[in-house]
Amino acid sequence: MFFAFVIIAGMLLIGVLVFARLAARGQFVMPSRSPVWIILSAILFVLAGCGSGSVTTPPPMTPISTSDTGATTPTSASGTTQSDWTMYHNDNARTGYIENFSDPKQLSRLWDKTLDGAVYAEPLVVGGHVLIATEQNTIYSFDAQTGQEQWHTNVGTPVPRAALPCGNIDPSGITGTPIYDPATKELFAVAEISGPSHILVGLDVSNGQVKLRRQIDVAGMDPSAHQERAALALNQGTVYIAFGGRYGDCGNYHGMVIGSKTNGQGQLLVYQVPTPREGGIWSPPGPAIDANGHLYVAVGNGEVTSGTWDHTDSVLRLSPTLQLEDGFAPTQWAQDNAADADLGSMSPVLLPNGQVFSVGKSGRGYLLHANALGGVGGQIQEQQVCPSYGGYATVGSQIFLPCRNGIRQVKIEGNSITMGWQHDQPNGSPVVGGHTVYCMDYAGGTLYALNSDDGSVRTSLSIGTTSRFATPTLWNGLVFVGTMQGVVALKVA
């Protein structure tokens, strides 16, 4: 092969020289028997010979990364690759599932950091760095493997509990999980700052520089009564931010979703639940977004307890521009409102077969059609499951629920809701890696790793006190959990 290419190169050189000489004489037309034609014919003959026989062309090299995130794709403990963990539970559907992740025989502490405040938001991983937001309104970037700090940025003074009419977080800073945008390479977060007011910030993840700062309290909104606990969502250049009330339901608050362009330009998009008061959209996963950009949110109890449905105790579908498209409520929505037994405590579950599953404080589970949610009482199926609070995880049509009395597996089979296993110790918001469910016993400060097939304990490790809705992050054979003191990194072995 080498000698053939040497011959070709020589012939090409001769051809160029001959053609140049002919061109100098004004002879641009090549007759069929011209010297150049003879040379080119010989070259084609050699090329044909090089293309035959048993010689094979080697496959092209695999690029290091074809994504536009600016981050490398690391190799996981199982030898496969895994992308960054850029939002709550890893994707717009909030599945919290990674297929290629080693099942642990044990968990060991790799590193931990004491930070300036409690961590309620889920840790994120971008470009090999863990991004942590605290209630002191500080965002940190640490090397995921070593724990070495890359940078930290404080975006404003948080609001002390004493300055608010009610609540159970002191102080209130960044509570909802931020989101990373690969298009702008910015991390977006909502911070509650003194005033009080709520601001959307965008930070350059390479150095922590604040690139965007925008107030998002809209006209008629009382910032002291509204809390941003839900995870941020992102689609097609718009960041979506959901609001509910504070613990204690004080003040005149309304559930709402606000949308802002990532560049901070243009008017804010707003959807407000049409109820006189309450109807918060507060569950930690925030809005789930389908492949067409439609948002699905769960709405809490409202003040109305009779008469016409006010779109509380519900699952609502919103357009990308935050127009109400469809909704569902249980037949007994008014009684649920009166008893604080609504669907607002857990975001809707988007299933792969065009269905939606919803369950909340009452424990009654509802299976819905995504394209026709059903209005009042229009569910496909309903069944008593368990009172659920926080974030779920899904593997296909299997759902792992954070129930009041432990983690529960639920299977959706056609139009049926089937109960699977239950483990009564951990009851935090789960994620799934490989065939293992990772979840906190937040009261006891212990992280559990359960076999996803039967709920048996693979291993567990005490990591310290966490918030009620703390949820793990999985990346490259490591597990990250935010605590009331900071963050812990664990190694799967």
UniProtKB/TrEMBL annotation:
InterPro entries: PQQ_b-propeller_rpt, PQQ_rpt_dom, Quinoprotein_ADH-like_sf, WD40/YVTN_repeat-like_dom_sf. SMART domains: PQQ (SM00564). Residues 109-241 form the Pyrrolo-quinoline quinone repeat domain. Residues 63-83 have a biased composition (Low complexity). Residues 58-83 are annotated as: Disordered. The keyword Magnesium does not apply. The keyword Transmembrane applies. This is Pyrrolo-quinoline quinone repeat domain-containing protein.
